[in-house]
């Protein structure tokens, strides 16, 4: 039997240091929300590969679609000899997004989708600058890192980034940043630093992912839409983490009545097969003369995504995301009431659930250390969790949306036990 320890040693010798792994737990197999490592230990998966396996590991419909496609052909390049699945998927996405007349383009990763969204926005507006948010995360290529509003660890050692990127605060009542504060900074930026006629796009995550599961207020998104309309700026919604039923709607922007110009998709789109997409208003999408890449829109990815969309509809996963969110927040709020000085906040947008760990009940005193310990101890007890936030003091829960409720509760029991252990010390 292979051992986790030996594999970790081999990994450290063979894979660059920068590509870290949170757990030295090497996976043998995974079914829905359960994972078994090479030593036969079972874990409950509250990570879903960072919001990717929304329809669970090895969903029979995804597996069947993949098998059939692999047996037929695996690659021709959609830009050489296309295939119907790419058209079918684009047609589906174009009608699913809350954009009236949309078109799609396929890429591989979330970062590539963001890169292309910016390219398209620049081509359409003939403008060169972009606004994004403090605390945002948009990927690890140069443009995406430039847009990302968190320095350590993502940007460290990699600058300079492209010119013409400006960051404004993300409104957050807990951190004392009101909607007005955020909009005032934007208006000030227009007065002091850059003319709005130079701005091609504002890019926003409707719920910040890596930044800490902070939910953009509906009113703020509406105000951004108005501002964008006033100045001819495009509104790009980065739904790479929030998309595909995760927040209780197909796309998180649907919780508002705002129609964005462009949406970026990735992660849950194909449930683990690398595939991403940019979907936007037809006239905007068609302004870019050349887009694409060798692997973007692979037949395997497209078939997987078509199956994912059917599963989300057939199994009512938007509703399920809301139920999962409620079950988790009910359980975690009991802990918050018990330890108000240590848990500053439990919040969720559907099944994007976060617990913010602090000292003295103060948002300005993040307790990164205890957060790490809770995540480590939970994994020792069989539950896999991630952290997020500017200070890494927010535990995020991202179970597959197909998780069985007894397994969800089993995971929550482990988390409760771990938190009580550390907070009662
Ligand atoms: C909102 C958001 N945008 C972009 C990305 C980058 O996606 P990828 O890692 O697939 O390049 C991520 C990844 O975490 C993300 O959460």
The strands making up the biggest β-sheet line up spatially as 4-10-9-8-7-5-6
Instruction: Pick out the low-confidence regions.
Output: none
Q: What is the global morphology?
A: globular
Count of DSSP H/I helices: 13
Range of strand content: 15-25%
Helix content: 25-40%
Given the helix and strand composition, which structural class is it?
Answer: alpha/beta
Could you say which small molecules are bound to this protein?
Answer: pyridoxal-5'-phosphate
From the N-terminal CA to the C-terminal CA, the straight-line distance is: 37 Å
- Please write the string of helix (H) and strand (E) elements: HEEEHHHEHEHEHEHEEEHHHEEEHEEEH
Number of strands: 16
CA radius of gyration is 21 Å
Give the overall pLDDT as a whole number.
Answer: 98
* Biggest pleated-sheet summary: 7 strands, mixed
Explain this structure.
By secondary structure, the chain is α/β, with parallel strands linked by helices. It is about 40% helix and about 20% strand. The chain is built from 13 helices and 16 strands. The protein has helices at about 5-15, 50, 60-70, 85-95, 110-125, 140-145, 180-190, 220-230, 280-285, 300-315, 315-340, 370-380, 405-425, and strands spanning about 25-30, 35, 40-45, 100-105, 130-135, 165-170, 200-205, 235-240, 260-265, 275-280, 345-350, 350-360, 360-365, 385, 385-390, 395. The strands form 3 sheets. A 7-stranded mixed sheet has the order 4-10-9-8-7-5-6, with helices on both faces. Strands 11, 12, 13, 15 and 16 form a 5-stranded antiparallel sheet that branches. A 4-stranded mixed sheet has the order 1-2-3-14. Strand 15 (about 385-390) and strand 16 (about 395) form a beta hairpin. Helix 3 (about 60-70) runs antiparallel to helix 10 (about 300-315), helix 11 (about 315-340) runs parallel beside helix 13 and helix 12 (about 370-380) packs across helix 13 (about 405-425). The longest helix is centred in the last third of the chain and has 22 residues, at about 315-340. The chain is globular and about 55 Å long. The model has no long low-confidence stretch (mean pLDDT about 100). Bound molecules: pyridoxal-5'-phosphate. Pyridoxal-5'-phosphate binds near residues 50, 110, 138, 139 and 240.
